[in-house]
Structures are given as C-alpha cells and as structure tokens.
Write a structure and sequence with these properties.
Belongs to the AIM32 family. The chain is of the alpha/beta class and 348 residues long. Helix content is 24%, strand content 19%. The protein has a seven-stranded mixed β-sheet, with helices on one face. Strands 3-2-4-5-6 form a five-stranded mixed β-sheet, covered by helices on one side. Helix 3 links the parallel strand 2 and strand 3. Helix 3 packs across helix 4. The protein is globular and about 55 Å long.
Length: 348
C-alpha cells in the first residue's frame, strides 16, 4: 500500500485512489470489446510523422475528454482552418460569433454547461435563393441539424443559443443567482421558431480531427482516416453520403432520415477542428443516431451516443465500423470517453 504522505505529495488523495479502484471494477454501461480486431483486407499504412511529433502510446487515454453538454458543428466546407478557428476569414465566421456568446467569458458562458464549438469540413446546405448567405450546423448529441442560419443577422445566432444550446435546468451551483440572472441562462424554446428547417439528424456522423493548422499529427492522420472510413463503411453496407444536405427538397426525406435501400443506415464522414489530445492522433468521434439499428435489426446499444476514440490508425477503421457502428460495442483499447444523448459523460 502506498503511504499517504507520498500520495499527498503527488496530489492524490486516498479517497481518489479508492474511487479509481471502484470505477475500475464497475461494469461499463455499454457492451465492450478489449481490442480492435485485425483488418481482414489491405488498408492504408500507418503514416510516418515528423521527428518530435510522435504519438503517445504510453498514457492511459480512457477518460481523457473534456466534459461538454453539446457540440456545435459548423459546416464550413473547408478541410482545415487556422489554429484558432475564430480567426478564420479575418474573424468573420460563425464559430467566432458563437464563442462570443457561449465561449469562455461569453455572455451566456456556464462552467457547468460547456458548449464546444467546432468547425467541420461538411458543406452547408444551399438555400433556394442563391443571394442568401447562410451556414448550417449540427447539434450533438441532440442530433439536430440547422440548415439555414443567416450570416447577416446576429439575432439568428442568439436564437440558436437561447433556443437550443442553453440548459433546460441550471446546476445547483447557480442557486444563489438572482431570478433574472437565472432566467437569462435558461433555454427559451420560443426562440426555436425563429430558425427555419431545423430537423433531426439521423445519419451516422464520423468526425475525424484533421486540424493541421493546429497540429501536424492531426493534419496527417485526419485525411487518411477519412478516406479509410469512406472506403470501409460501404463495404459494411452503410452508404456514405457526400455533398450538402438538400434541406429544401421534399423528396430527400429518405436520405435525411438515414434509411437507404438495402443498407443498414447512412453516414457522413468529415474532418473537424481541435478536440484536444493531438498526441493521441488519430482522434475520432462516432455519433450514432437515436434510431440506429444493429446489422441484425435490433435496437443499437450505442444509439444516441457519441463515442470518442484515440490513437486510431487505418488498420483500426474496419474494426470500428464492424464492432462499434454495426454491433454497438466500444473498443476499450481505443476508448477516450463518450457522451449519451442526455449529456452524461461516459467513461470506463
């Protein structure tokens, strides 16, 4: 047994040690598989990285994700961005507007309800009127898609925050706030009526950190893994959709619902900006929609969840598709954490 004096000098309390022991023996709330299966076919080789930018294979990655309530995924149509995404296009971008409201020190910033704003390579939906300037966003794990957010009105950004992103209930730490202050931090569903065309997102979303403007490891791994997922998913019977979501077209309901002829589901694969943990590249988040079924037609064990993986190499992609996407099993050796649809952070 480690002496308490040593634990204290290391900043570790006996209570924390006991907690970690109890967590280690607790049964995970989802199916798991310890290791990723070896690929059954040829895949891209593991890329070589510049000297000094090695992948950390020693640190335990389970639990190494930041707590968050929602990801706001901005559809930029670009594969990469400046290190600070709010500086893209000289600061004229949706990520900058959102962080002004819900970022650290923002008007509606709440340390107990963290909103993580990311850029993605997904293109935005195109409005029927070409002169309109709009941007699309995904809200995850709410699994909502907002096709048309006007870029000439800050009021629409505020409507998104007030109508969809603020919490429905405040943390008990806010009990001492005045009623007016509490009211300002709570969600107002009436604002949802100001945003047109918002719908459920029922596609599998595979998000690969490819933020080369922030770290070269992600810039190298990201596009490589994106290509591998786009190759492996159709082999497993999952159609990969590309191009903007045609939100104005009534005959696209089948594609938007994720149900496609002869296939289990549909997916979109995109690159995203920094999510933390460059040294654990490739970093992948798989968001599995609430209505997802397994390959056998049963309820999917991970439906409505977002699963974070780290140290993903091309040789792991087939296993992630087979075990996580099709069967609903978390691969323990790659697992960084996850989130359920109700915002609960998942750890082993």
């Amino acid at each position: 047994m480690i002496p308490r004096s040593i634990l204290r000098r290391a900043g570790v309390t006996p209570f924390l040690v006991a907690t970690r022991r109890s967590l280690a023996t607790k049964t995970p709330p989802f199916p798991t598989i310890p290791n990723c299966p070896s690929p059954t076919c040829a895949c891209a080789p593991t890329p070589e990285l510049p000297e000094g930018l090695e992948i950390d294979h020693k640190t335990k990655i389970s639990g190494l994700i930041s707590s968050y309530a929602q990801h706001v995924l901005v559809c930029t149509g670009k594969p990469d961005w400046p290190s600070r995404i709010e500086e893209d296009n000289s600061g004229d971008n949706l990520a900058a507007d959102l962080r002004e409201l819900v970022g650290r020190g923002g008007v509606f910033s709440d340390p107990f309800h963290n909103i993580s704003v990311l850029n993605s390579s997904f293109p935005s939906s195109k409005p029927q009127r070409a002169e309109l300037q709009t941007t699309s966003v995904y809200l995850l794990p709410s699994f909502k898609y907002v096709p048309f957010l006007p870029r000439v009105s800050f009021e629409s950004v505020e409507a998104l925050v007030k109508g969809y992103l603020l919490p429905e209930k405040l943390h008990s730490a806010h009990d001492g706030l005045s009623p007016i202050h509490k009211d300002r931090l709570l969600r107002k569903p009436a604002y949802q009526n100001l945003l047109l065309g918002v719908r459920d997102s029922n596609d599998i979303l595979v998000l690969v950190c490819g933020h080369g403007g922030r770290d070269k490891r992600c810039g190298i791994y990201g596009p490589l893994l994106q290509d591998e997922f786009e190759r492996q998913l159709p082999e497993a019977g999952v159609e990969v959709l590309s191009g903007p979501v045609e939100a104005d077209m009534p005959d696209t309901a089948e594609a938007l619902s994720g149900q496609t002829s002869g296939r289990v589901h549909s997916a979109r694969v995109g690159l995203i900006s920094h999510i933390g943990g460059h040294k654990f590249a490739g970093n992948v988040i798989v968001y599995l929609p609430p209505d997802l079924k397994t390959s056998g037609g049963e309820a999917h064990p991970l439906a409505g969840h977002g699963i974070w993986y780290g140290r993903v190499e091309p040789k792991h992609v087939e296993g992630i598709v087979t075990e996580t996407v099709l069967k609903g099993k978390v691969i323990t050796e790659l697992f960084r954490g996850g989130i359920s649809q109700d915002g609960k952070i998942l750890r082993l």
